[in-house]
């Protein structure tokens, strides 16, 4: 019992650290996130954080995993909603794109992308996260084709193309490039989605 309680307390402590790390990135940016700064926010020591994560890179990766797990739950809920497949696709795109230039999840993605070439564990983690989005989008497109709401298409290829486009739009938003805000990204994503995933001339009634 005591061992189980310690493990539970450890999980709670780790989740608190990850939550605070994401909040710090959103407020001050990734460059300002140091182990000592995070420790100060948490009222603990840098050594205590290192005890759980071992390094800043590991902390950042686990923070990204934690954030993506939350989005994964939202995505699962979305996939089960009783709305048309077209509406689900729109909501999927909205969920994928960053909330704005300070979106901490996308800030982490951009930082970690640059490190994946020389870091196999990080590369494997990135691929695992990406596969979740790809799998759900393929399921969504397949259902739309089966229902006659989307024209016949190469589902895996179109899903990959759409996600790559969303990655590009998201990167522009997070980097704060001129004319690249969430509203503009959403508009461009919707236009591109209509081209990549066309509907038949006659759509069956809802």
Give me some keywords for this one.
206 residues; Tetracycline Repressor, domain 2
Provide a short characterization of the protein structure.
The protein has helices spanning 2-28, 35-42, 46-53, 56-79, 85-96, 104-113, 120-146, 155-174, 182-196. It is an all-alpha fold and 206 residues long. It has 2 domains: 1-54, Arc Repressor Mutant, subunit A, CATH 1.10.10; 56-196, Tetracycline Repressor, domain 2, CATH 1.10.357.
Overview of the molecule:
There is one protein chain. The protein has 206 residues and is mainly α. The chain folds into two domains: 1-54, Arc Repressor Mutant, subunit A (Orthogonal Bundle), CATH 1.10.10; 56-196, Tetracycline Repressor, domain 2 (Orthogonal Bundle), CATH 1.10.357. The protein is 73% helix and 0% strand. It is built from nine helices and no strands. It has helices at 2-28, 35-42, 46-53, 56-79, 85-96, 104-113, 120-146, 155-174, 182-196. Helix 2 (35-42) crosses helix 3 (46-53), helix 5 packs antiparallel against helix 7 (120-146) and helix 7 (120-146) crosses helix 8. The chain is elongated. It starts with a helix and ends in a 10-residue tail after the last helix. The mean pLDDT is 88.
Tell how many strands the DSSP assignment holds.
0
If you consult CATH, what is the topology of the largest domain? Answer: Tetracycline Repressor, domain 2
Task: State the separation between the terminal residues, measured CA to CA.
Answer: 53 Å
Largest sheet: none
Average of the residue pLDDT scores: 88
* Structure class: mainly alpha
- The CATH class label of the largest domain is Mainly Alpha
Q: Quaternary state, please?
A: single chain
Order of helices and strands: HHHHHHHHH
CATH A-level architecture of the largest domain: Orthogonal Bundle
Q: Gyration radius, to the nearest Å?
A: 20 Å
The coarse overall form would be: elongated
Contiguous helical run count? 9
Strand content: under 5%
CATH superfamily of the largest domain: Tetracycline Repressor, domain 2
| Helicity range | over 70%
Uncertain residue ranges: none
Q: Total domains, how many? A: 2
